[in-house]
Amino acid sequence: MEKDEKVRIIETAIQAEKETLNTYIKSAIKVSNVVGKNMFLKLALDEIKHREILEKALKSQLEGGECIFPEIEKTEVTKIVPDVEKEIEKTSHLGQDDLAALMLAQKVEKNGIEYYKQCMKNSWDEEAKKMFSYLVKMEEEHYALIQTQIDYIEGTGYWLGIREFTLDD
């Protein structure tokens, strides 16, 4: 793969992270529920971190022709899941506008997952593959967190992917 193609792939990913950040900030402003607002703000912070990772990779690609994947701390998303459960117990039911914002966010995450999977598949070295694999995992965690909120709004009886009740109860 040519250096210019590698740079284009990383620049595309950076632009996608910027647009996703904007989407999450706008969603945080739009939703009425404090849990939803906080979730979108946490997701926005993760998108900033993703962009920073990609910008470092781009810089190293431009300077030395190599993609260097920096060490990553545990994602903020995985740290907030217990707080989300506690907040939902204290809050009222989310509205339909909130559901629309969550579904849009989930679509954005799905697109990100697909893009990063394609980048991972076409990675030019192990460091690039490791970076895109990490980004796939983070976007999948975002998708799952958003699905948790959707399940709550829709009252499906699932919490964190586990059915809360059965018809035998």
TrEMBL record:
Q: What is the species listed in this Swiss-Prot or TrEMBL entry?
A: Candidatus Methanofastidiosum methylothiophilum
Q: Which domain of life is it from?
A: Archaea
Q: Cite the InterPro entries for this sequence.
A: Ferritin-like (IPR012347), Ferritin-like_SF (IPR009078), Rr_diiron-bd_dom (IPR003251)
One Gene Ontology molecular-function label: oxidoreductase activity
Please give the name of this protein: Rubrerythrin
Rubrerythrin diiron-binding domain residues are 9-145
